[in-house]
Fold this protein.
Amino acid sequence: MIDIFGPETPCLMRLLADISVMTQNDVDAVAGAWSKASGDERAVAWAAVERRADDDKRLEIHHAARVARQHALTVTRSRGRRETAFAAAAWDAAGAVSSGAADWAYHLLCAPMATRLTWLTEQRAPSVPAQRSPIESETWDERALSPRSGGRR
């Protein structure tokens, strides 16, 4: 796997994959937990994350956070909603995961997302899940020949 987000790429890819399959109830629970959390505490946690990172690491952290926020917004928009609190929780969790630390700041920033993705605060996920959706498990040839794609069998 290419380390597009630095050494924490496998965990970040797992986070993005899990965000993709969250139900609307999951999204609402995460958004609610993020809204109830203290903005001041989040600011202090972000300051701690950034203070211990050098310039290159800060770029990795912010890149990962931006990708996760955009992905979360895309997922909720595809369902006809726009959940900015959910997107902010994705930003916080991705930034914390990308930091590589598992301290108080990590746990505080991951807490809203961890209401549904418990691996964030238990054992951090080592990789993207091996299980794939039915469409992903087909080969490209099988999809090209399916009646839905207009291919011939």
The helical segments are 9-20, 24-36, 39-51, 55-77, 84-99, 104-114, 134-137, 140-144. The mean pLDDT is 83. The chain has one domain: 9-125. Residues 55-77 form the longest helix (23 residues).
